[in-house]
Amino acid sequence: MKLTFSPASPFARKVRIAAIELGLIDKIELVPATVAPGQANDEYSKITPLKKLPVLLLDHGDVILDSYVIVEYLNELGGGRLIPGYGPRRWKVKTDHSLINGMLDSMLLCRYEKMVRPQGTLWQAWYDDHWNRAWTGMARFEDRPDVLDGPFDIAQIGLTCVLGYADFRFADCGWRKAYPKLDAFYQKMLERPSVKISAPPAA
Known about the structure:
The protein is α+β, with helices and mostly antiparallel strands. Helices cover 57% and strands 7% of the residues. The chain has ten helices and four strands, in the order E-H-E-H-E-E-H-H-H-H-H-H-H-H. Helix 1 (10-21) crosses helix 7. The model has no long low-confidence stretch (mean pLDDT 95).
């Protein structure tokens, strides 16, 4: 299998953490790819018209899109417990992950708005709205001991990637002071080899 990725992508990091935890990382070739707003990448568009990272390319030619779907595939392949198989907890974990993925989407859009938007055209209200989505999402998980102290699963992996991306791209946002329970959770996650190995490069 091949996984397209960037070391800076929190979505690709999510898949890498899962693959390491499931014992599958040695079966996956990491293929660096670059995608950016406003920049054509015709070769990558042939793989996925959405031009998003990551994508899992299977040995027989099939393509699996979306970081969550890739983790679900790997979880099934590896016989893991990162996603509950049935019952109320399955839907709670999937819903938590959907919120987390939306937070990451908003953070990525904030990054693009500040770094890619042509000078003088910043839409501050739009930026503030998206940042508030991520920030209030953190506030919600600050009061979720069932997630912070629960079993290691896709929601914990995703939340780890949110906090790591906040450190990486928004180092001065103050999330650690605002959310001490999230800080303690992230420090605990940093003890896992999968989280250390997948950390983004220094900003």
